[in-house]
Every structure is written in structure tokens, then in C-alpha cells.
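Hey, resending since the last one bounced:
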Amino acid sequence: MTLLYDYLIYFIPIVGIIGLLAMATKSAWVTKQPSGDAGMSQLAGYIADGAMAFLRAEWKVLSYFAVIAVVLLAWSGTTVENSSPVIAVSFVIGAFLSAFAGYLGMRIATKANVRTTEAAKTSLAKALKVSFTGGTVMGLGVAGLAVLGLGSLFILFYHIYVVKTGGGVNGEAMSKALEVLAGFSLGAESIALFARVGGGIYTKAADVGADLVGKVEAGIPEDDVRNPATIADNVGDNVGDVAGMGADLFGSYVATILATMVLGREIVSADNFGGIAPVLLPMVIAGLGLLFSIVSASFVRISKENDSVQKALNLGNWSSIFLTAIATFFVVNWMLPEGSFHLVRDEDANGAIKAGALVFDKTGVFLSIVVGLIVGTLMSIITEYYTAMGKRPVLSIIRQSSTGHATNIIGGLAVGMESTVLPIIVLAAGIFGSYHFAGLYGVAIAAAGMMATTAMQLAIDAFGPIADNAGGIAEMNQLPEEVRHRTDNLDAVGNTTAATGKGFAIASAALTSLALFAAFVGVAGIEHIDIYKADVLAGLFVGGMIPFIFSALAISAVGRAAMAMVEEVRRQFREIPGIMEYKAKPEYEKCVAISTKASIREMIAPGLITLITPIIIGFAFGPEVLGGLLAGVTVSGVLMGIFQSNAGGAWDNAKKSFEKGVEINGEMFYKKSDPHKASVTGDTVGDPFKDTSGPSMNILIKLMSIVSLVIAPHLNHESNVNSRIKKELNTQSSTKHTVIHNKHI
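The C-alpha cells again:
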């Protein structure tokens, strides 16, 4: 048993390697599947080339940003004792792995799409297997890289800053190790923001342009080969919903674990791991969730044409959640000691626990994890209800489409606003419950429990754009109706899973941001945030405004890029004779270039607002005002994210419902009918909501919290004249609780 204690810390990166090996195996299986005839392979090649062209252009711009960030971080690491220039190295590794995670997903998605189309010629079951396996590669790649990178760096920094210096777990040594590790999360979230915003602008500029000219003006199907923007549209599915989402959830995964580790450092724990069990626990839970996601992925299968794809995906999702919940019960009881826990900050100078301090035990920690899993499950169920076909919200938009475009827009906006109610109640209950069981550490570990099954969540999410691309390739190649029917079946489910994935990401971001907020308060050396102070209240209002200006910039960017796309598509229809008769080939590459240039140019302003605002507010007005800003950003951002993502998802599935036919007041309506045209308008409005600004909200609130956490030691150093006294008290307190680490590591 002692040997197990000694080497548990190495279990974490080993699990990451296992996840990557499983990913490689599944990737090889997808690659071996037949890719169809020459025409299908050619179109798939256009999509893959366009996606790679975007990534190369994006990485070029981001490399300039990374160089500037590295220089600033390395310099700032020398200015305070609680940091180190090594934080710049940590940043680079996080940024690289975040970008690499998106690249892995994009590569497999551009291979799986055409293979899903070919499999759809055989059966729905075969098509689901290929598309979901492609999504699984994405999920395992993201989770595997995150667990491997975070686990390995923690081992390295723990040895350098804690073990070799003989520092205490609850003192400045561990605080420094985690501050340097925060650079990893900062790098991951920074790349995620640009990837999400840039990819979202790309995909929606192409989608809106293709819809407005192709479907509305020319009256041709969505993925018709005659539409010059159709390749750019399919490329966008990969760079936005695959590469962007991969980098997004990679950042969320890392930020959640890091926030829990930072709060775990403050817990006094007489455990068998040298006192670091509360710090190790979130990484161990993440590792277990990765393993159970591998197991649960095998449950996602159907055997008949009329079997429910959604039920198959739900079975895999719920299995991973259930298995993780069971395993964490035993892990928590094994890792955490008997008795109660409290925070170092809740001790007085004599080591006694202060009156009113929150005390909890390992049962409370486990119950907090269960709360997180329940919150994640409920958020998925609620989001599915508001965005799925056949449910009341989508049906209400369909009915309002019968009276025109304006009433369709009104209906979609109302559904999006209504959809914030239940998720916020669930989040509030989750925050209250997890805090009741284990304080702020409980809130953080609840988020870690929710994110434990990220590999499965992302597999389900990435399955959607693969299925969407597969349908596009089937349409462009004019394959038989039964093939398109199967890909449409997968695509419709994919729309819902994409919406639930965004809901899951936003929910986790809310809990993670609260945990990061608590960590920031501790590191910055402030006791509380008083909104009765004018400057703090002003910061709260400014923070509430940030998600609105961020959304405005993102949506406006889509509008400008879409206008350029519309003009280009109209030009080609006008100047290239024979396109509509299949006698001439459209110039796809020009539409791809428009989306690429626009997305790279337009992603900079929203990114800079997110990164620079906390720095300006923090150094100009102090940590308490910055805390008010973060509170405003978090509340406003969560509401905006839920509203926009669900409204867009509902509009999209309302439009897709007309493809099978819908009944309105006893009359059937199909494609090209007036209600369908109204639904196309609604979907066009909802596109930047659900795929650009909406899903970017979760990165916005987390990244601003992480930037604040990274600069917190500087704010503490600048603003607190009693910092040396507090440091001495912390050192004395941690010395009493220091356990000899060398025999454990």
C-alpha cells in the first residue's frame, strides 16, 4: 500500500498516455475505412485543405501574440517572490497543447466526414460508428493531452519548488508551484479564445453567405455543389465546431483542475500523500473520467435503421457519469483522511480554528462531486429540451414561422431568454449545495467532477460537425435519397448534441470561474469584496457590460464577413456562366480565402478586450475592484452564453424540421414553403449566436479569471502593506502542518 501512495502522483500522466494510445488506435481504425469514389474524395480534400489553410494562418498570428506574452510573463515572473520566469515556459506548453488538441480533432474530422458518407450507403449503424469514433478521437485527444500535460508539469514544479526547498504544502512554496502552473492554463485558454472566436467567425460567415444566396436567392439546397460558398461552409464546421471546440474544452478542462488545485493547497490535510491529497484529487478524478469515457464509448451503438441515435449517445454519456461517480466514492475515501478539514486562512496565530470557520469532511467532498455530476447532467437535459426537434420550444418557433420572418425572430429570441431560467436555477442550487458540503473547495471539486467526463462530452459534441460534413458531401455528390436520409438523421441529432455540449461548457465555466475567483481573492490578499464601495460597484457594472461588447464585436464581424461572402457568391453566379447547369465549376477557393482573412482579422479585438481589461483594472484600481469586475463578467457572461447558444440551436432545428415536413394549423409545410423561408432567416440570425459569440462566453469568463489569478501576486505585492507580516504568519502556520515529502515522492 505504501508503494501505491508513493507513486500515485505518477498515475496521472500515465492515464494521459493511455488516453492518447486509445486515441491513436481509434484514429487508425477510422483512417482504414473506405472513403468512397473519386468525386467524394476530391470534395473531402477541398475541405481538409481549406481547414489546414485556416489553421496555418491562425497559428501565424497567434505566434506573434505568444512571443509578446512569453516576454511579459518571463519579466513579470522576476518582479515578485511568489512567481518565476518559468511561468513563461508553462504558458508556451499550454498554448501548444491547446492548439495541438484542436489540430488533432480537425484532422480526424476531415477524414471521418467522407468515410461517414460512404458508411451511410450501407446502414445508419455503420455511419454512426464511423462518425462517433471520429468524435471519440477528438475527445480522447483533448483529455489525454490535458491530463498528460498538467500532470507532468505538476510533478516537475512540485519537485522544484516544494520538495527540493523543503517547503510546506500549505505555504508559499506550493503557492509558487501552482502560480507557475497557472501559466499552463493561461496559455491553453488564450489559444482557445482566439480559436473559438476565429473559428466561429469563419464558419458563420461562410454559412450565412451560402444560405442567403444559395438557398434564399438561387433556391438550391444547402450543400449544393453549385454554391461557391459550400466548401467554405463545410470547412467552417471543422475549424469552428471541431478545432475551436477542442481548444475550448481543453482550456476548460485545465482551468477547472487548476482552480481546484489552488484551493486544495489551502486545506490542512493529514493524509498519506504528504498533505497534498486535496491538490492531487482533481487530477485523479480527471484521470478516472478519461478511463471511463474510453469504456463508455463502446456503449454508443445501434443495430437497426429505426433505432434512436440520441438514445445511443445518451447511454454512453450517462454510463461515463455513473461509472465516474462510483469510482470517486472509493477514491475520495481512500485518499482523504478521517476527520474534518479546514483552510489555513481559517487559523489564528496560535493555530486554533477561528469561530465561524467552515469545517467539512471527505463525505462532503464526495457529495460535492456528485452535485457537479448532477448539474452537468441536468444542464444537458435542459439544453436538449430547448433545442431538440419535436419539443415545445422548437415547435413554438415553427408555428410562429407561419406568420412571417419577424414572428420567427421574436419566437426564437423568446425561447433563448426563457431557456436561461432553469439552467441558472440548477447552477445556483449546485453552487449552494457544493458550498454547503465542502465550502469553496466543494464548488471547485464539483466543477472538476462535471468536467471529469470531458472526453465523452467532446466525443458526442464532435460527432455533430462530422455528421454535418457527411451530409454535405452526400448532397454535393447527389447520392441516393436513402444516404442523405441517414446523414440527415445523424446531423439532426448532432445539432442537439452541439447545443448540449455548449450548455455543458457554459455550466462548467460558471463553477470554474467561481473557483478561480476564490483562488484570486486568496492570492491577491483581500478578505472580501464590498459592493457598497463606489469603485467596486462601478467595476461590477463594467464587468456586466464586457460580454455585451464582446458579443457585439463577434456578431458584427460575422455580418461584415458574410456581406463579403454574399457579394462573392453573387459575382460568381453572375460572371461564371454554366454554374447552375453543372457545366462550370465554382471558384471555391475564393470563398475560403474570404472567410480565412476575415476571421483572422476580426478575432483580434475581442481577444484583446478579454486579456487587457483585467490587467488595466487590476493595476489601476486594485484587486477589490478587479474582483467586482470578475463578478459582473461571470454573471452576465453565463446568461448571455446560455441565451445565445440555446436560441441559435432552437432556430436551427426549427429550420431543419421543415426538411421532413411540419404541420401548422392542420396543414403540412416543407422546404421552399413560405414558413420554411422564414425559418431560414431565423437560422441565419441564430448562426452567430450559437457558433460564435454564445460559446465564446465560457472562455471569456474563465480567461479573465485566469489572467486575474496570474497577476494576483503582483496586485498583492503592490497594494498590501502588510504582505510581509501575512507571509510570516502563513509560513509559521504551514510549518506546523508540513509533512516530510521526500519519502512520498
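The CA atoms of residues 546 and 633 lie 6 Å apart.

Sorry for the duplicate.
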